[in-house]
Amino acid sequence: MWPEWLTLRHDHGSHFIAEDFQQEIAFLGIKDSASYVREPQGNCIAERFVRILKENLLWVRSFRNVEELRLALLVFKETYNRKWRIGRHGYR
């Protein structure tokens, strides 16, 4: 179902470490990748991306079905990765 390279990056919150959660992502074929202890910036980066996604796609468009949403997310991913000026690229 998921690509074999799919990895879930998360902090050490109790819900991510819970046995039920770990079993579920293993069942789905998703690799677990806990961030380093005392490095909250990993969570901050993920939360900022989710905010960008909401503000630029999810809150400004309506989708008729899941397939339309999936296609819009693919376009957003391509635009974000290729055209957005972000800090890690020196804002170029």
TrEMBL record:
GO molecular function: nucleic acid binding
Listed name of the protein: Transposase
InterPro entries (alphabetical): Integrase_cat-core, RNaseH-like_sf, RNaseH_sf
Superkingdom to which the source organism belongs: Bacteria
GO biological process terms on file: DNA integration
Integrase catalytic domain mapped to chain residues: 1-92
